[in-house]
Each structure stands twice: as C-alpha cells, then as structure tokens.
Amino acid sequence: MTPDPETERVRRFYDRAAERYDGGIKIFERMLFPDGRRWVCSRAVGDVLEIAAGTGRNLPYYPKDVRLSAVELSPAMLAIARQRAEDLGVIIDLRLGDAQALDFPDQRFDTVVSTLSLCAIPDDRRAVAEARRVLRASGQLLLLEHVRSPIRAVRIGQRLLDPLATRFEGDHLMRDPLDYLSTLGFDVEVCERSRWGIVERVAARKSP
C-alpha cells in the first residue's frame, strides 16, 4: 500500500531530524517527562509491540522477561534504534513499519506501547485501532503523550502554536487519545496528568 502524502511528509521530517533527535528530546524529557518512559515500559508484559519506536529511547526501561517487537516509520531513526539495541544487548524484532497499517496478525501481542508518537502519526485514531487489532483479549495499551491541556490559558497557547507545530514538525498539540479510546474499544484503567495538564500517562485495557 502506497503511503499517503502526510505520512510521507512525516517520514521525511524524521529522516532529516534523526541525527539530532536524541539531543533535542532530552531537554523536553527533563522538563516534561522525567520518568514517563519508565512508567510506561515497566508495565509492559508478555509479547510487547512498540509503535513509532523512534531511536529506541524506551529500550533500557522494559522488563527483562518481555518479548519485544517494534516498528518505526523512518529508516534513519530505525538505524539509530538498531544500534542502541545492539549496544544495550536487547533482543528485539525491530522493523520498518507504519503504525497506521501494522504488518502483524490479529491478536499477536499482550501489550502495545506508544510514547510521544500519537501526536505525530497522521491518523492517530487509525493507529490506535490497529493497536487494538493486534492485541490479544484483555491486552493493554500503554501511552505517554503530550496532549491538549484542560487548563484554558494553556490550551489557548497550544491552539495558537498548533498550526506551526503541525506544519513544520508534524506535531499536533491539540490531540488527546482520551477523546476516542473508549469508542475504539478500550477501557481506561489509569490516567495521570501533569505539567499543566499537558502530559498524560494512560494504561488502557482492550474491551471484550
């Protein structure tokens, strides 16, 4: 299937940004997500799929007994993730792929992880629907995302910046997966907000 133009645009952006990505994201992680990756990854169990794995920054935080797979849209980001996995000695099925059209069979995984990716995936709802498809019965979806703030003053600022962030980085500031998780077949079990409501950590379970 030929990727749509917006997906190709996002791919090109991350290919160009790959070499400087880790340096830049470190700043935002210290400010907004200091323990977010650990919070998400420590909850993963069984057969685990990470979507939009980027440069593999989550790899140090997964439990040793999980069986890891991951997909990443950008070949340049994927190359860095593969090197990181090798350096850490992490065994993982790490492949080029689109979270909006996963190349895995139905009910393949116990856990799907997404960290700081639903903001950039062109069709985030489609990606979550794909996550549900590949999850086994009662499988879990674990999320760390920056989202639309419930605080009016912060939300206004996000709305003003959103067109620029979307155009130049493919980064949507006004999204929130809570808008659609239940309609796509998930029961939210844990939701924690921080940093003026911008940061959201979610553990959701696939509904029967």
How would you characterize the overall build of this protein?
Helix content is 37%, strand content 25%. It is α/β, with parallel strands linked by helices. It has a 7-stranded mixed beta sheet with strand order 3-2-1-4-5-7-6. β6 (186-194) and β7 (199-206) form a beta hairpin. α1 packs across α3 (75-88). The longest helix has 28 residues, at 5-32. The chain is globular, with a radius of gyration of 16 Å. The model has no long low-confidence stretch (mean pLDDT 94).
Features:
208 residues, alpha/beta, 7-stranded mixed beta sheet, 5 helices, 37% helix, globular
Short description:
The chain has 208 residues and is of the alpha/beta class. It has helices spanning 5-32, 36-41, 75-88, 124-134, 152-169, and strands spanning 47-50, 67-72, 92-96, 109-115, 135-146, 186-194, 199-206.
Provide a count of the helices: 5
Query: What gap, in angstroms, lies between the N and C termini?
Result: 30 Å
Radius of gyration: 16 Å
Q: Give the strand tally.
A: 7
- Structural class by SSE content: alpha/beta
Helix content: 25-40%
Uncertain parts: none
How much of the polypeptide forms β-strand, as a percent range? 15-25%
Give the SSE order as H and E letters: HHEEHEEHEHEE
Average pLDDT taken over every residue: 94
